[in-house]
Each structure stands twice: as C-alpha cells, then as structure tokens.
Amino acid sequence: MTSALSPAMDVLNRVFGYPDFRGSQRDIIEHVIGGGDALVLMPTGGGKSLCYQIPALVRAGTGVVISPLIALMQDQVDALRTLGVNAGFINSTQDMSQRRAVEEDFVNGELDLLYVAPEGLGVHNTQRLLDRGKISLFAIDEAHCVSQWGHDFRPDYLGLSMLHERWPDVPRIALTATATSATRAEIATRLRLDDARHFTQSFDRPNIQYRIVPKNEPRRQLLSLLRAEHAGDSGIVYCLSRASVDKTAEFLSDNGIPALPYHAGLDARVRAANQSRFLREEGLVMVATIAFGMGIDKPDVRFVAHLDLPKSVEGYYQETGRAGRDGQPSTAWLAYGLQDVVQQRKMIESSDGDMAFRRNAAQHLDAMLALCETVSCRRAELLAYFGQPGGGACGNCDTCLAPPESWDGTVPAQKLLSTVLRLQRERGQKFGAGQSIDILLGKQTDKVTQFRHDELKVFGIGKDLRDQEWRGVVRKLLASGYLAVEGEYGTLALTDRSTEVLRGDTKVMMRREAPQQKTKPGRTTK
Ligand code: ADP
Ligand code: ZN
C-alpha cells in the first residue's frame, strides 16, 4: 500500500496524523505541488493551513507564509515544531539574535516553513534575505486584507504584488475565509494572480443555528439562553466595548456561569492566561471584544453570542464561524437594537476616514442590518451575500424554525416619517428616535412640554403600537434606507427615498416581534 501513496497523502498521515483530506484540500494541495497558483476560499475551520503546509513539505525549499497575525506566529511555529516540522518566523517581536538564527537556518535550507509579516516584505533586507535561500512557495494568508473595500484592509498587502515580479517561478497560494465574489476578483487582480485556479468551498456551516433577536435586556437575555440551552458549554460572547466586556463577564460569574474577560485593555499576561484557560478547560465562557478569536482553534465552542451588532456581515460570519468547528450542533445568537444602529452610524460619521471610507463602512453596516431585519431564511441570506444564492430555506435558523409573522407596517412607517418631516419643516428641529416615538405615543414628557411637541398634528397618532414596536419600525426604516441617523446625537433625518414611503409607492413589511419574555420593566442588568 505505502508505495502507492502520493507524497501529499504520505505527509498528511505521517506528519499530521490525519487519515484523510477534507473537502477540496487534496485538489488544492496537488495543484500547488504541481507548481500552480491558487486562490482558496474556505470557511474558518475548513483546514486552510494544510493547503500550504503540505506542499511546502513536499516541494524542495522553504515555504514562505505571509500572515498579518504576528501574535499567532510563535504558537503556529511551536505547534509545527512539535510535529517535527522545521518552522521559523521573522517579525518585529524578535530580538536581533533570534532573528539571525532563523535567517541562517533559512539560507542553509534547513527550514520547511518561514512565517513573515507583510510589512517585513516591503523591507529591502528581507527581500535580499529571501534571494539567498530557496523558496518552494508563497502562501498569502488572510488574503482579503488586500481588498480596499473589504472590512479588514491592510495597506502592506498591496506591496505583495511584487512577489510575482521578483520571483515569477515560485507558485503562490492566497487563502481567505471571507470574500464576496467582488472581493475575490479584487484579490486576484491586486496580487497579480492572473492564472491562479480558484477553489471555492461552500460557506455553509449547517451545524450552526443562526438566531437574531431584538435586544431588550441583553445580559438577562443571554443568561436565559445559556441556562436553557448551553449549561456547562464553552462559548464566546462578543461585546463592542471593553467596559461592557468587563461588566458582562462579572454578571455571568455572579450568576454562576464561569466567564473570563478578554480585551486589549487588559494586561498582556492576563489576556494570555485567560486565553489559554479558555482553550484548555471545559465549560468556560470567554467574554471578549473582537480582538479575541483570530486563529483560535477550539473545536467544541458550542455558542457564539453577540451582545452588540457586528459592523459587517463578513465580521459576523467570521466570529460566528468559531462555533462548532467539530461539526456538532451550535448556536450563533445575536441581540440587536435600535441603539446599535444609532451608535454605529455615529461612529462611522465621526471617524477620521474620508468620504469613500465612510460610504464603504455604511454599506457594510446596511448589509448587516438587512440580515437582521430579513423575514426569510438567515442562512440563505448569508450564503447569497457570499455569492452562493438559491439555497432555499435551511430549517435551522430562527426564521425557518419559527417563521416571523410579517405585517404591513406602511401606515406606521408613514406616521413616523411624517413626524420627522414635521419636526424639520415646521420647527426646524431634529430629534432622536426616542422623542419621535414619545410624540407618536402622545406622552406628556418634560421634553415634549418644553418643545411644545404636543401641539404637533402627529402628537398621539401612534397609540395603536407599543414603544417596542415603534422601535422596530425605526430599525426597519433605517435598515431599508428610508430613514437616516445623523450627527453626534443620533438624530433622525429623511433620505432621498423617504418620499417613496410617504407617497405610498412602497409597502413596508415588518417582522412581528415575539412578545417579550417576562422581563420586569425598569429592571436593569447590573
Ligand atoms: P482554517 O485556517 O481554515 O480556519 P485550520 O487550518 O486551522 O483551519 O484547520 C482547522 C482544524 O481542522 C485544525 O485543528 C486542523 O488540524 C484540522 N484539520 C485540517 N485538515 C484536517 C484533515 N484533513 N483531517 C482532520 N483534521 C483536519
Ligand atoms: Zn433558515
């Protein structure tokens, strides 16, 4: 038998100890061993690393891996070394003597794999160093970082087009877990991968159940979820701010769920300790900002919960993709509310980026909102976003399991837009969602009296809906672009498209929100 084994299969069995390839690994690996260029799109956990590690071991010379994840290089290299692979890395965290030793190994042809940071390659020294050794292949990891319109652009990646000019005969393999078809095309162009074969593995993660719920009391809602469905499970909870990470971790711990915080504001040693506990121990919940998770390989993460809205569908997919790598049933749960939309729009508007940057960020946010507000299958929407349309209903997401009733919200939408319009036209004023809703509900608050908003024609015309429902109307209008949020205070403003609704040219279909679960009004979650 052994004599018939391909070199790739031999390395897979002997070095990595796996019996068989997964998905398209075999095709990709054979193609690169044969000297071809490849552009690989594979979901997180799909097994991208082997796609370049095995060819690097089979081909003569050193495989040079370009990765932006400097913090992970040491771990990756250590893991390879325990398998008997000669791996090394060069980056800014090293001192001179460590670096010299790695360089020497490379030049002497003693390295199978060399990890470098993209900024290193721009440096003449590194380029000259690479000329002194023999390179078997270039692997460009996280290749979507080259896309200026992606969500994770890194300018240093643009320089990587020079690999092809300087080493035209060395095969290149670019890998990413996140790229729409437009981004894929951009990667190919910018990296000069003109003749690369494209390998695209399905983005579907059938064992992950996607659920998106309206946010009321996020920590209480999370606690109910964990108690009801994930007692004793490992999981990750993402929050936007460091303060919210700390509070949530404390809240869970106080309620008997072992939880650790992780964010950039913590001491590096604490962070490392928390991370390694999460990886080693069972049943720990990691509460983190999105700083946590890149390259984390824990197979039995049973849930990923978001307490704040991700900035893009790409980010959402990447973060939720950390659940269920072992293929077992897992939950991706997101709570989102109006405040998220207001906050993120504010962040975009007050960012230092230019117009193009802001427009791009706004488009990413809009796509995320559309996913939240959809009345059809979440998975189908998600896959369509990544260029795999026509999936049909999946049967394993919240909208499939409990189809949301939709209702015609055109009249309420018109009432809300009229309120914004009247405030602007009659008073020259702009207010946030809260005040507009108070006006519609006919509430005599201090602010209503102060601004004489009870004299407006629209005062009290929206008593047929509850406050929660009005918030849903605002969210839907924001998600669909019929309404905008502006400025430091998150005030509401009409858009070019508002008239479509006001004139009755468009119907506004709304998700009926499940009645709130017995939460006590006014009760805060610590
Ligand atoms: P990605 O980079 O695509 O997120 P990794 O390369 O980190 O994924 O692989 C994810 C996990 O799957 C790792 O634990 C890896 O060892 C494992 N793996 C990859 N290929 C195989 C295989 N053919 N058989 C068994 N396990 C595999
Ligand atoms: Zn579905």
UniProtKB/TrEMBL annotation:
Query: Where do the Helicase C-terminal domain residues begin and end?
Result: 218-369
What GO annotations for molecular function exist for this entry? Answer: 3'-5' DNA helicase activity; ATP binding; DNA binding; four-way junction helicase activity; hydrolase activity; metal ion binding
One of this protein's GO BP terms?
DNA repair
| Family, per entry | Belongs to the helicase family. RecQ subfamily.
Which residues are in the Helicase ATP-binding domain? Answer: 29-197
Q: Name the top EC class.
A: isomerase
Catalytic activity line of the entry: Couples ATP hydrolysis with the unwinding of duplex DNA by translocating in the 3'-5' direction
User: What UniProt keywords apply to this chain's record, in alphabetical order?
Assistant: ATP-binding, DNA damage, DNA recombination, DNA repair, DNA-binding, Helicase, Hydrolase, Isomerase, Metal-binding, Nucleotide-binding, Zinc
Record protein name field: DNA helicase RecQ
Per its Swiss-Prot or TrEMBL entry, what cofactor is needed? Mg(2+); Zn(2+)
Per the UniProt record, which EC number(s) apply here?
5.6.2.4
Q: Name one GO cellular component term.
A: bacterial nucleoid
Residues of the signal sequence? Answer: none
State start and end of the fragment within the whole protein: 1 to 526 of 672
